[in-house]
Design brief:
Strand content: 15-25%
Number of helices: 15
CATH topology of the largest domain: Rossmann fold
CATH architecture of the largest domain: 3-Layer(aba) Sandwich
CATH class of the largest domain: Alpha Beta
Helix content: 40-55%
Radius of gyration: 23 Å
Structural class: alpha/beta
CATH superfamily of the largest domain: SGNH hydrolase
Largest sheet: 6 strands, mixed
Shape: globular
Length: 422
């Protein structure tokens, strides 16, 4: 049973940055990000959230991504094929997430732990040699205490000790190799235990099978990786002075008009949006927000209002209104956190649908075409040139789809109304 003290400690861990970056490593204009991992990556959920963020929240200009998830994969399995399967794409940034299969689903095994450590380091070195300037070594997540091994809590706690040991190894490898680290394990476990207290054991964070999360758990994973990638969370700031009607907007946003507290804004940078009306539904990304500081750390779209008076100032954004005090507004409110239903939800959803379709094509491209090519070449050497041409065409098609996604992020016009109560 989780004691109140332990629960409080775990919640505090969830609110602590679960990553570190090194030196001057950060996302740069035009970076191409490889999201690498096992079947959890191949679910195309946290990888979609990462690509959503890179495209629409724009921590740097012209970012693109490809996911390289492979069901059942281990760090040593990936290391053996990465030169053929991933490095052909020439990524400049990479995130890795291995360990769930490496641990063997049992107590810590010295041979598996050694192989995990050695191959994590090999993967980092090969990515460096291939030209990646920013590499994030991710820890595995946790398994769910309520659902793992047919609801065997003891088995879950045992395997989480193995996964926690792999977390420590992943951190050590990142430190030794001078690259970034994303702790996926701690914030996921913290959120899992806290959410169980609030929503009950039916609300799983690491998936109905205890291993493969729904959208709620994948949002935590995306949070950990985006923090490790150095994303600072500054979506934008709108500042308005009610005394003179003047309004200003930061980069990525334009004030088209400002009149009597009514602002018309055009934004090319989107806040991250969340879906699912029922917070207790694990496919919703909204219910988990109580346990991960995604909006605070990664999604700050601020409204600052000067010159308002009183404790009842109504702010209307799109079709929804909330009241704030003048003091709150002068310090700034985070529109993205206060208004989960907002004018960006539908444009965000449209782009995300395209991201998901693109990533659905990437799995067969890598697994069925690129990975199988060497075996086909062995049997039919004369086909080598044709196979290589086909692979290059497939890679180029994926990159063209990525560029089309960038073009799909069109500016959104929206209105903010500020009304001072009497």
């Amino acid at each position: 049973m989780t004691t109140p003290f332990r629960l409080g400690l775990l919640v505090c861990l969830a609110l602590t940055p679960a990553c570190f970056a090194v030196g001057e490593q950060h996302l740069q204009k035009g970076d191409y990000v490889a999201v690498i991992g096992d079947s959890i990556t191949e679910q195309k959920k946290y990888s979609v959230f990462i690509e959503d963020y890179l495209l629409m929240c724009q921590p740097a200009e012209d970012l693109t991504a490809t996911q390289f998830g492979w069901s059942g994969e281990t760090s040593w399995g990936y290391e053996a094929r990465m030169n053929n399967d991933t490095l052909r794409f020439k990524p400049t940034v990479a995130t890795t997430c291995f360990g769930m299969n490496d641990g063997g689903y049992g107590p810590p095994n010295p041979d598996r732990i050694r192989m995990y450590s050695e191959n994590q380091a090999k993967i980092v070195r090969e990515l460096k040699q291939a030209g990646a300037h920013l590499i994030v070594v991710g820890s595995p997540g946790c398994v769910d205490v309520a659902t793992f091994h047919n609801h065997n809590r003891q088995a879950a706690e045992t395997y989480n000790k193995t996964l926690a040991q792999e977390r420590d190894i992943a951190r050590e490898v990142a430190q030794k190799e001078g690259v970034a680290f994303a702790d996926v394990f701690d914030p996921m476990q913290s959120a899992m235990l806290a959410a169980e207290q609030k929503y009950g054991t039916g609300y799983h964070v690491a998936g109905g099978d205890g291993v493969h999360p729904d959208d709620n758990g994948h949002l935590i994973m995306a949070y950990a990786f985006l923090k490790a990638l150095g994303c600072n969370g500054e979506i934008g700031t709108i500042t308005v002075n009610l005394a003179d009607g003047q309004a200003q907007a930061s980069e990525g946003h334009k004030v088209l008009s400002s009149n009597n507290g009514s602002l018309e804004i055009e934004s090319s940078r989107y806040p991250f949006c969340f879906f699912g009306d029922n917070p207790k539904e694990t496919r919703s990304t909204r219910g988990i927000l109580a346990f991960v500081p995604f909006n605070k750390d990664l999604n700050r779209f601020m409204l600052v209002v000067n010159g308002a008076k009183g404790d009842h100032v109504k702010v209307t954004w799109g079709n929804h209104s909330k009241e704030f005090s003048a003091d709150q507004l002068s310090k700034g409110i985070n529109l993205a956190a206060e208004f989960l239903d907002n004018p960006f939800v539908e444009p965000f959803r449209r782009v995300e649908d395209q991201v998901r379709r693109k990533q659905e094509l990437e799995t067969p491209l890598v697994k069925a075409v690129i990975n199988e090519a060497p075996r086909v070449e062995q049997s039919a050497p004369a086909a080598k040139q044709a196979l290589e041409s086909g692979i290059e065409a497939g890679i180029q098609c994926d990159k063209d789809l990525s560029k089309a996604l960038t073009a799909a992020v069109v500016p959104v016009k929206h209105t903010i109304r500020i009304e001072v109560g009497q």
